[in-house]
Amino acid sequence: MSRRIAGAEIERLIQLMAKLPGLGPRSARRAALHLIKRKEPLFAPLAAAMGEVLERVGICTNCGNVDTCDPCTICTDPARDRSVICVVEDVGDLWALERAAAMKGQYHVLGGTLSALDGIGPDDLNIAPLIERAEAGDVKEVILAVNATVDGQTTAHYITDRLEGCSVEVSRLAHGVPVGGELDYLDEGTLAAAMRSRRPV
């Protein structure tokens, strides 16, 4: 049985921080101690920012992005190509594409992937609104930017089947050798995907 090393408030902070992705109990203790030591320059502004986010940030009812307005700033941006929807699993994937400036159209966040093992079916994901958006008439292409996992591929196949009746082109991100990658360091699945996705030069 482990001994309590601090007051209940600090222990609760550590336990909550340990639930964050990438932080275990040890990392959470170090992070909490760092915050406590720097209460004024770091902890107080962080707590204020978190309170503001809790109060003001919500989910976009159109695409599933997180923002302080609904519809979100991406959905309301007039410079965006409304004929293209990029489908992603989570908001983190949307942010990654935005950082890369790789997408000029709209987005649609599924909120996960289909998973029989975890009991996640089509009704648990944001799929029905995607079909509605595709059927609206303005959309010409739906890009499936889901991860190259078994669940991701299952989700992509399901969405492709559901979009069959819509007059939209369905495309997928290429999978294979990354820019700057060396063949000797890649796994077999990535190499096989790269070979299947080869293009003429």
Question: Could you walk me through the main structural features you see in this protein, from its secondary elements to its overall organization?
Answer:
With 201 residues, the chain is α/β, with parallel strands linked by helices. The chain folds into two domains: 8-56, RecR Domain 1 (Helicase, Ruva Protein, domain 3, Orthogonal Bundle), CATH 1.10.8.420; 78-172, Dna Topoisomerase Vi A Subunit, Chain: A, domain 2 (3-Layer(aba) Sandwich), CATH 3.40.1360. The chain is built from seven helices and six strands. The chain has a four-stranded parallel beta sheet. It has a two-stranded antiparallel sheet with strand order 1-2. Helix 1 (8-17) crosses helix 2. The protein is globular. The model has no long low-confidence stretch (mean pLDDT 91).
Features:
four-stranded parallel sheet; Helicase, Ruva Protein, domain 3; 12% strand; globular; Dna Topoisomerase Vi A Subunit, Chain: A, domain 2; alpha/beta; 201 residues; single chain
Secondary structure layout plus pairing:
Blueprint lengths: L7 H10 L7 H13 L1 H18 L1 E2 L6 E2 L13 E8 L2 H9 L5 E5 L18 H8 L5 E4 L5 H13 L6 E4 L15 H9 L5
Parallel strand pairs: 3-4, 3-5, 5-6
Antiparallel strand pairs: 1-2
Helix pairs in contact: 1-2
- Overall shape: it is globular
Helix count, DSSP H or I runs of 4 or more residues: 7
Strand content range: 5-15%
Number of E-type strands = 6
Q: For this structure, what is the CATH class of the largest domain?
A: Alpha Beta
Helix and strand succession?
HHHEEEHEHEHEH
CATH topology of the largest domain: Dna Topoisomerase Vi A Subunit, Chain: A, domain 2
Query: In whole angstroms, how far apart are the ends?
Result: 64 Å
If you average the pLDDT, what whole number results?
91
User: How many domain units?
Assistant: 2
Helical percent range? 25-40%
Model regions low in confidence, pLDDT < 50 over at least 5 residues: none
| CATH architecture term of the largest domain | 3-Layer(aba) Sandwich
